[in-house]
Design brief:
single chain; mainly alpha; 3 domains; 49% helix; 8% strand; elongated
């Protein structure tokens, strides 16, 4: 873990050594954990050297306390990926956050929410509607018309 650089270093991930970025909120949370003197791990083993490996038992308690039945570590990963995509982050960047080796692995999150494309379509059509409305206003003030009505129903852009 490199708090200074905001990175999580995984020496033994599914794809080998992996370095993942951590958001500021995660760093604040992790810095708040009491560290075991002499250990390089944020979550050290309860006995002996190494890191904590009893996540299954702890996970059940965490999910129960948080009142999140059915949530798994993969659910958290999926939420991170789908949220990134839904807020407009590109697949390569989302894949880098998740540690995907190729973009195809990340593409599964693109179908989860079509909100980014819908929001983009609304922004673009809104700009076009504004431009057309401005053109119509200018034409009306000059008494000229281009011969086309440019009206867009609210229901068409909502």
């Amino acid at each position: 873990m490199s708090f200074e650089h905001g990175l999580l270093v995984l020496d033994d991930s599914k794809t080998g050594k992996s370095i993942r970025p951590l958001g500021a909120a995660a760093i604040v949370l992790l810095r708040g954990i009491t560290r075991k003197p002499g250990s390089d791990f944020v979550f050290p083993a309860e006995r002996g050297d190494g890191h904590f490996q009893g996540t299954k038992g702890v996970w059940t308690k965490v999910v129960a306390k948080a009142e999140l039945p059915g949530v798994t570590p993969h659910t958290l990963r999926h939420t991170m990926g789908s949220t990134a995509v839904s807020y407009g982050e590109g697949l390569p960047l989302t894949g880098a956050i998740l540690g995907h080796a190729n973009a195809r692995s990340t593409a599964i999150y693109a179908h989860v929410q079509h909100d980014p494309s819908r929001r983009a379509a609304n922004r673009i059509s809104g700009k076009i509607a504004e431009a057309l409305a401005g053109k119509n206003e200018a034409s009306a003030q000059s008494g000229q018309s281009d011969g086309h009505e440019h009206r867009i129903a609210e229901s068409e852009v909502a």
